[in-house]
Design goal:
Blueprint lengths: L6 H4 L3 H9 L16 H13 L7 H13 L3 H9 L1 H10 L12
Helix pairs in contact: 3-4
Protein name: Tc1-like transposase DDE domain-containing protein
InterPro entries: RNaseH_sf, Tc1-like_DDE_dom
Pfam family, one: DDE_3
């Protein structure tokens, strides 16, 4: 049996644990989603940083600003994020899977 290892799922309900035990099923240890391993998360941080402090009169105006910032991201920035994956993996291993600061991989 495999399930997410997000904190709120790790404990599980008593009913679920009982059901698994009755069937002698073992739950695989599986990491929860990690923004440290997902370059798109870093792109969203970049976009959010560019929008901080700006005021928008409507959701549509905000959406247009997000689209503008998204289009302004160059391929070299994306390549740096992709190329940094081995380094991020190394930092995560050293940090025993706990979140890392992205500033460490630049």
């Amino acid at each position: 049996m495999q399930r997410s290892n997000k904190r709120n799922y790790r404990k599980g309900s008593k009913t679920t644990k009982s059901w698994l035990e009755q069937r002698s099923l073992t739950v695989m240890v599986w990491p929860g989603p990690s923004p440290d391993l997902n370059p798109i998360e870093n792109l969203w941080v970049h976009i959010k940083a560019r929008l901080v402090g700006r005021k928008f009169r409507s959701n549509n105006q905000l959406w247009e600003a997000v689209r503008h910032e998204w289009k302004s991201i160059d391929a070299a920035h994306c390549k740096r994020l992709s190329d940094s994956l081995p380094k991020r993996l190394s930092f995560l291993r050293k940090n025993e899977g706990k979140a890392i600061s992205y500033s460490y991989v630049h």
